[in-house]
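Journal club prep — side note

Before the paper discussion, L.F. wants everyone to see what a predicted structure for a comparable chain looks like in token form. Sequence:
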Amino acid sequence: MSNLEVKSVVSKNAKLRMTVILLVVVGLYIYTSWATKSTPMDIIKGWGGFQRILTDLFPPNWSYVPAVWEKLVETIQMALIATTFAAIVSVPIFLLSASNLFPNSWIYQPVRFIMNVLRTIPDILLAIIFVGIFGVGVFPGIMALFIFSLGLLAKLMYETIEAIDMNPLDAIRASGGNTIQVIWYAVIPQVLPQFVSFSLYVFEVNVRASTVLGFVGAGGIGLLLQQQINWFNYPRVMTIIIIIFIAVVVIDLISNKIRERIV
């Protein structure tokens, strides 16, 4: 068989494989739509309800802004405290989780396992648990965000460390440097920009997450939003939504500018 014929057979096999994969994917979507009784027609059917909600939400109640601002500041403070402490505590954890720093599986595997367990617990479930322990307020929200941020930062950073250039590490080890010296002179200079960038990203995530945590009594602007929804005070609800949107956009812009300068 000539090379041209071999290429033709390979091309046909590749096309057949792609066609089968595409049919399987389309079939899965069709089955999922049937199983969940969800179709694009539901969007059209729900348009009337969407218009009714918009009518209830507008115009916003701008006189409610001072009360919302106070809770927004509280939400940002929750996210800032949780992110700061999580960033500090995560440093020894992600260092111990990196297999290229501590090749012994008895060291990095248990640490990774604990962090994986923490990441599997939804932040809102953590908030419910801490509200049950400490009562309604800001502290349960901070604790929930702290645990959530710790697991996320640890995973992002140990994966970053395992992808760094190993030549500086090997050079320091070859010259007699210990593990602390390897970390300080070879690892930290390579991963510090990513660490700051990931910490800023986690802070952004925590600001959004803290809004939801308020629905279970974990403080912040979410608690205020839940109250107004329960009271069917939709103009105030719209005011809160607009302020949250503006705050998140501003935080994203500032964070992106900082990350651009660091990375």
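L.F.'s comment for the group: The domain at 64-262 is CATH 1.10.3720.10 (MetI-like fold). Keep this in mind when we get to the figures.
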